[in-house]
Design goal:
The protein is an alpha/beta fold. It has helices at about 30-35, 40-60, 95-105, 105-115, 135-155, 175-190, 210-265, 275-310, 315-325, 330-350, 355-455, 475-500, 505-510, 535-540, 545-555, 580-590, 610-615, 620-625, 630-635, 655-660, 660-675, 690-695, 710-725, 740-745, 760, and strands at about 65-70, 190-195, 200-205, 455-460, 515-520, 565-570, 595-600, 635-640, 645, 675-680, 700-705, 730-735. The longest helix has about 100 residues, at about 355-455. Helices cover about 55% and strands about 10% of the residues. It has 25 helices and twelve strands. The strands form two sheets. Strands 5-12-11-6-10-7-9-8 form an eight-stranded mixed sheet, with helices on both faces. Helix 14 runs parallel beside helix 16. Strand 2 and strand 3 (about 200-205) form a beta hairpin.
Length: about 775
Amino acid sequence: MDQFEVVRADTRNPVPRILHEGAVTRGEINTIAALKRRRVLIGFLILAALAATFLVSRLMTPLYEAEAGIMFNPRELSWVGATTQAGALPPSEEMARKNEVAIVRSRALAQSVVDSLQLDRLPEFNPALRPPSTLRKAAQEGVAALDHALKPAMAYLPPGMVPKLPSLIPPALPPDRLRDEIITRFLARVQIGGGDASRMIGIRFLSENPERAALIANRIADRFIAQKRDQDVESAETLAANLKQEIDDLNREIRDSERRLEEQRIALGLDSDSNIKVLADRMAELNRQLIGLTAERLRAESQFAEAGTTRGSTQESGLDSTAQVLNSPLIQRLQEALAYATARVGQLSLRYSDSHPTMIAARSELRDLRARLAAETNKIQNARLNAVAIAKANEDGLRQQVEQLKVQTTKANQSEVELRVMERNVEAKRTLLPQLETRRNNAIAQIDYLRLHGPETQVISPAVVPNAPSHPPTLAMMATAFVVAAGAGILLAVLLERADGTVQSLSQIRRVTPVRIVGTLPVIRGRRWSRRPPAEQVLERDDPLFLEHLRAIAVRAGLAGPAPAKVLLFTSSVSDEGKSSAATSLARMLALSGRRTVLVDADLRAPTVHRVLGLKRGPGLGEYVVEGCGLDAVVQPDTVSGADVITAGQSREAASDILQSPRMQELIDDLTRYYDTVIIDTPPVLAVVDTHILARLADMTLMMVRWRSTPISTFMTALQQLSDDRVPVDGIVLSQVDGRKYKLYGYADSDLFSPGFRKYHSRVASNP
């Protein structure tokens, strides 16, 4: 907010104002100082936590702890399920140790121990046999008594509206669940010790009876070794059986593979000694035959084609050509006969005419020879055509055989590959068979070893009967409670300090408002039940520090000097900030120093001055203003100090009407003429507007602020209210300051309460 306007210099004082919006509203936090300040709270929390922890530890049932130590040596042997993994690694020692611990904490082992020792008959483990606790007994009796008391009243209720009280007796568990609960409680008492990298396992057991604790710990170790032996033997037997079964299966697979191999060879048409070379040789022979048949076909086709080309030539040239091409003896003789007949016909034609019988006979003979030659030529040509057809048929048949042999050769090659794969598989199985036989023999040897020597686990330290209970760990519990309580106390102290929004130091007030700080009033020392009011301390002078600070306030308020202030008004933001105590103490101190002092109690609504000084409430200020009483009638002397007092009196008129009446102004004027100092005690600012009225009649207005009690926001609100009404405030007094605690917080002005100043406070100064 904006700063308020400062009044003129010739006026009394500037009105109170707030420096700026967002001024400090929280206390100054110093962690170390906060812990010192709240050390009583922290100590109380620690003591309460320690006492509660000790009480709880005493109420808990003491348990005795016994420990049995066992040592195991994991053997690097095959295990069940690894019959075909010859190169696999055995489990590590850490894994082996975890397996051993799991066996120790198994429910099967716990059940065997419970059955062997008949622990289900002991109330320690069987909840059905445990008697009810004292608290439960008391609750059951209370419920029974309440049921008995309400039974007459519930008799008048309808059957459906009768309330049913809860039963505190737990229902009985069925046998199966009861047995599970017994085993669960047993396992809760079992603890495993030993390091993760150690082959030693410590089996600890907690029991209410020391002998029973040692007995159970030893029994767990014995049962563990026996069960371990049985498990190892069973595992080895299972391994041997699995190996035997695998050997039998492998032999059967070898026989089946050999049978399938032989069947495959038979399906190919090959005996056991045949191979792909036989088919290759047959393929080569057929190819050679095919080449010969192809050449023969080509030769026949050539001859047939050559014979066909000569048939259309002339008879003479045709015969010659035919004779040359066909080269047949019969054809040659016919050609010779034809030539002779042709020549004879030529000779006869020279001698005879065409009609001559000789000529006709010669020509007829020539025609017969030609017809016969043609017939013979056709026969030879048809024979050559048949030869071409036969050669082609032979070639096609042989070529088909070659193609079939190619297909057979391809199938033979594929079958040969399959046969080789099958042979390799059979050979691999034959190689694996001796290895399995060796491992089976090792497993049988392992069984014999385990039955003879037992597992590689032994008890190295049997459990002994403990002398003292080990549970509950009272010291550890109390140490934990101390740490937790101390941490909680420290946290609570810091939170309380941070949540404390009260006025804590003079420097904080200076950051809020520029109003002058007149001084501080320390708290009266002494025990709370024997501590006397500050006004009595002034008389006894038992607290010189309080008197010195009171004198400092009087001096800074302008009550001394050549032109002292006449009217001094005390007010505060809220009640219980020490304004009445400051007013009465200052009035007595000034009176004892020889000043004529009058104290006016203007808090007409809740007056306290008459009680503090031991005077009558009336007649007082109310009677003076309303009823018109004289000044002598309302002034009461304080015989122990010599100061005069005007109490609040009693009046039915409104307090604000009384205080702003002209007669109130006349009273203040009269008092300033008769007395050196007039001290007025007024109500709180935030309660009523009385202070706003009376502050205009005073020469000096002091506002009391109680240290670490008045919220800073409340103080700021009161100043703002006075500032809004332009009511001047001349000084602020920080009251009820605990000097020792103030020093703990390490404020900048904490030297005001330095122990080194005690030598100056031991002497009482004369006058302010």
